[in-house]
Amino acid sequence: MFGVLNCSDPFAIENGNKMYDWVNQTLKEWSKDPSIVWTATVQHHPMFSKWWADYLQITSNMMPMILDNKVDFYLNGHEHGHYYANYPYNQVHSMIR
User: Fold this and answer.
1) Percent of the chain with pLDDT strictly greater than 70
2) What 3-state DSSP class applies to 19?
3) SS3 of residue 55 by DSSP
4) pTM
5) In-domain check, residue 1
6) What is the C-alpha to C-alpha distance for residues 45 and 54, in angstroms, rounded to an integer?
7) Count of the separate structural domains present in the chain
8) Structural domain includes residue 3
9) Mapping DSSP to helix (H, G, I), strand (E, B) and coil, where does residue 66 land?
C-alpha cells in the first residue's frame, strides 16, 4: 500500500496495518448492507506478478480478505497487459501479524 516507502520502515508497517484493519472492517460492514450490490477493490500493484517485489505480501494478506468478504472484482494498475488469474482459496496462507 505504500509503494514509495521501504516496506520494513516502522512508519509504513504501522500505518499499513491501520489501513489494512480499516479496509477489512469496512468490507465486513458493507457485506451486511443489503443495498450494496457489488463490491470492488482497486490496488496500484497487481496481486499476481513476477515483476513486483511486494506481490507475495499483497497476495497472502489481501487475497484472504477479498475472498472472506466476497469482493466481486479486483482492479489493479501498473501492468501493461491483460492478465487473468484463478487462485484457489485453500492455497492462500495469510502472513499478516
Assistant:
1) 67
2) helix
3) helix
4) 0.64
5) no
6) 8
7) 1
8) no
9) helix
